[in-house]
C-alpha cells in the first residue's frame, strides 16, 4: 500500500505500482468510442501510462495536455491516459481541447485496472478513483519507469518519464 496525500492529508492506495523490469499486466479498458482496448493492442510500441483520478480536475487536465504536446514528438510511442471517468467525459475533454496525440481509456466499469496496478485510492474523498501515477513500458511491455505522485494535486515528472523512453 502506497501512502500519498490529497491536500496534505494522508490517504492510501490499494497496493504498489509494478516494479521496474517486470512485465506489465495486460488489461482491458474502454476507449472513447466504447470499444475495448488492451495493453496487447499496443505491443511493439513504447507506452506511457498517464494515470489520474479525473480529467475534470485542473492537474489531471494539465497532465493530459502536457503529454499530448510531448507525444507528438515521440517515435513509436503511445500515450494512454487512464482514469475512471466515463468515456464520454474523456472524449468531450479532448475534443474541446483539440488533443489528438493521446489515447483516453476508461476503467469506469470494473475498476480492475486500478486494483491490479495497485493505484486505487482506498480512503478519503477520492476513494475508488485512481491515484496519479506514470508508468513507462518498452516495446515488449517491460516496466522501465514508475512514479507514484506523492501529492495528488501535483503534476508528474514529465521529463523523467520521457527520459525513460
Structural class: alpha+beta
Helix content: 10-25%
Largest sheet entry: 7 strands, mixed
In spatial order, strands of the major sheet run 4-3-7-6-5-8-9
Give a count of the beta strands, DSSP E runs of length 2 or more: 9
In terms of DSSP E residues, the strand content is: 25-35%
Regarding quaternary structure, what we see is: single chain
- How far apart lie the N and C ends? 27 Å
What would the principal axes of the Cα set say about the shape? globular
Give a structural overview.
With 165 residues, this protein is an alpha+beta fold. 22% of the residues lie in helices and 26% in strands. The strands form two sheets. A seven-stranded mixed sheet has the order 4-3-7-6-5-8-9. It has a two-stranded antiparallel ribbon with strand order 1-2. A hairpin with a 5-residue loop joins strand 8 and strand 9. The longest helix is centred in the middle third of the chain and has 14 residues.
Describe the structure concisely for a colleague.
The protein is an alpha+beta fold and 165 residues long.
Q: What labels would you give this structure?
A:
165 residues; 4 helices; globular; 22% helix; alpha+beta; two-stranded antiparallel ribbon
Write the layout of secondary structure elements.
Elements lengths: L2 E4 L2 E4 L15 E4 L4 E3 L7 E6 L6 H14 L5 E7 L3 H11 L5 E4 L5 H5 L16 E5 L5 E6 L9 H6 L2
Amino acid at each position: 500500500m502506497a501512502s500519498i496525500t490529497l491536500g496534505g492529508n494522508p490517504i492510501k492506495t490499494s497496493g504498489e505500482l509494478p516494479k521496474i523490469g517486470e512485465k506489465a499486466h495486460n488489461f482491458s479498458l474502454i476507449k472513447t468510442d466504447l470499444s475495448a482496448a488492451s495493453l496487447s493492442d499496443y505491443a511493439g510500441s513504447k507506452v506511457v501510462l498517464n494515470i489520474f483520478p479525473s480529467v475534470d480536475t485542473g492537474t489531471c487536465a494539465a497532465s493530459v495536455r502536457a503529454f499530448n504536446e510531448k507525444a507528438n514528438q515521440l517515435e513509436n510511442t503511445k500515450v494512454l491516459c487512464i482514469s475512471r471517468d466515463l468515456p464520454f467525459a474523456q472524449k468531450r475533454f479532448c475534443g474541446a481541447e483539440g488533443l489528438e496525440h493521446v489515447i483516453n481509456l476508461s476503467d469506469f466499469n470494473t475498476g480492475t485496472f486500478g486494483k491490479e496496478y495497485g493505484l486505487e485510492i482506498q480512503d478519503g474523498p477520492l476513494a475508488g478513483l485512481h491515484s496519479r501515477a506514470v508508468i513507462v513500458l518498452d516495446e515488449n511491455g517491460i516496466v522501465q519507469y514508475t512514479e507514484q505522485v506523492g501529492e495528488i494535486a501535483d503534476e508528474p515528472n514529465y521529463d523523467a518519464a520521457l527520459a525513460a523512453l
